[in-house]
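thought: fold this chain, then report.
action: predict
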Amino acid sequence: MATTPFYRELNFASDKSAPGAFEFPFVTCVSSGEPLHLKPHKVQLHDLRKEDQRPSLDVEGFTWQTVPFEGLNGEEGWEERYMQETCEWLKKHAGAKDCKAINYQIRRRAADGLSHQEANYAQDSDQVLSKQPVPAVHVDINRERARVRCLTPYEEDPLAVKAERVAIINVWRPLHGPVMDAPLAVCDARTFDPKDMTHTTDKYGGGYFIKHNANMKWMYIRDQMPDEILVFRQFDSTLIPTAGDAACVAHTAFIDEERKNLGVPRQSIELRCALVY
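observation:
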């Protein structure tokens, strides 16, 4: 029996004059100097559990894997051990010479019944950009600063600084499961047009928010569990986005309006890793 296609609204960068556009007040468009505006578009989301073939970092720009971790969200200091073990796993999985953590971020969705917009926009910038799930299609870092940011953990390693290939890869994992209210969606990098990237800046630096394009293929893991990770590329020095290479993966949280009050509100950890090949 064929399954019913799953559609939900994702928020994309938009002209402020577009019907339905609203201001995302803590992010600025570099070209205009004005606040970023977003507009929701309903898109089909494909459940990775139902895909015939598992995606890869080299082809789609992302993958999902089962990688258990003992002590997740546990005793004090678990984050440091998590970073070390995850970097060791990622180094082997990606075939890199070395992998070091750049930083990590823990997000815990507001659990007081607020609406999608109230829970994610009507707060101070620290809450919106670093504490709550970010419900807007984006790429974390722009190419102008990506290599420097990637090599920051390798400042005392002259061989790494001269490496021909470096990359930034994110690893996203729930702290509790299953995730029902606010999953993470990722875009198949082969369906991503670099012309849709809007260069932006905020208190953490420069990145990109992405305009809607009907050609994009969006995927997520339904009911993702804490032993399941989404791994996706944010930068690769050897890939050229204007040539269509899978240099970065657009991603976003989205609110599943039918299940947003079910289960434990989303709690997650995202780890940004610097890889040297």
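thought: worth noting. The chain has a mean pLDDT of 89.
final: tokens above.
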